[in-house]
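Folding Task

Wanted — backbone structure
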Amino acid sequence: MNHHKQWPQSGAWDRRRFMIAMSGTVAAGLPSGAWAQDDFPSKPIRIMVPFPAGGPTDIVARVVGQALSERLRQTVTIENRPGASGMIGADAVAKAAPDGYTLLINVSGHLVNPALFSKMPHDPLKDFQPITNVATTPIQLVISADSPVRSFDDLLKLVRSQPGKHSFASSSNGTPGHLTGELLKTVAKLDVLHVPYKGSAPALTDVMGGQVTYMLDSMPSSIALVKSGRLRSLAVTSPRRVDVLPDVPTFAELNYPGVNLSSWYGLWGPAKLPRAVTARIYAEVKEVLAMPDVRKRITDVLAEPVGDTPEQFSAFCASEAQRYAGIVRAAGIRLE
């Protein structure tokens, strides 16, 4: 029987990996400050964001990265590598050395992609080590402020009274807003058409202009238009009402508890990231998410810090991936 099977690499690296793995069992009982200073991290860390600078994913990554850099006394750089529904940036992390120096902050769409695309450069579950869910942001259902529709019930009545005449917008195919729209369409038995756009801005413009009846959108991109009175928010997907919109009910309050998808921002490393390194990064990010200024900057973009353990986040990723695949299948969505 070959006892060396699990050590594909050779020599010093094997021993180092073994020592790192063993140190995890010792370190688990220590406060995060008790780590040897010459241990991880001993050089700059790169966080890959697979979207352009300035969007909510990028903002969350920069807030966390900056605080992490101060705590670890190491440079943390954010690298934006957009394209292919987040797959280009994610793939760079999947193929990076599993040493904790290349990390990924990506949205929930990371787990939707396998259901949408027949060809993928990586497996979002198998090729990554989940570290933590950094933050989550609800999705809101918005309509034009000029619309006579005042409530979610009004909207249901309107759409049901004119089957096939109404449409809902999304920022793009396969986004959380699109999936939430498809989910609502199924559970509320609505005969509506989905209209995908290239980004939230053009979609919201058409909703305001009445070209599309409604949209389910991640709050950061649409909240300003609601606050300025150009859009009306009818419902939110969060478990409880959102502070900035105290009068807007949750879907659960409206008897649609299953319409509870959110946009969320997860932190992953490459698969085979040593347990000790995963635990260290998680412990530091958890500390960062508890800082009042970090919490404020994340809640300013209408996200809520989460910070669950690698085990919890791993289980969450598996169940979300399954759920998204079910919605995509039921709606017959396919992208190439």
